[in-house]
């Protein structure tokens, strides 16, 4: 019986990033937001937003953003923080997806499904990345998939940034 070779150089950083994110999120995420004592403290928002854009955590990032709009924080700083933390997390999602080996992908979804998904993301990838970031959809998952499919990083980052920028500007104008 053959065992697949595990690339520890790729696996260790991914596991460490995941553990660090889970520990930070579990210990601190949004406690002052949920208790109503956040005030103008943007640290809690940054932690919630950073955590909420990781593919393995689900957080109400849009609601936290709206909450902070109403407590009177600087809207430019809030938007910069929202986009910056989201981009950091999505870059982590992309790197985690990119680090999956072809063998792992084959086991998870199968070669034919992978090749079909790859063709779709090549055809609609940038528009999908933009729309998933613009709308309150699970954009971290699309970045994980883009990484798994080796979608060009520059394109993934650009369309993620554009979608996030538009989303947060629209939310600022509406709320």
TrEMBL record:
UniProt keyword Cytoplasm present: no
Domain of life: Bacteria
VTT domain boundaries: 79-174
A matching Pfam family: VTT_dom
Sequence intervals crossing the membrane: 12-30, 42-69, 75-96, 127-150, 156-174
UniProt-recorded name of the protein: VTT domain-containing protein
InterPro entries: DedA_domain, VTT_dom
UniProt KW keywords: Membrane, Transmembrane, Transmembrane helix
Keyword Transmembrane recorded: yes
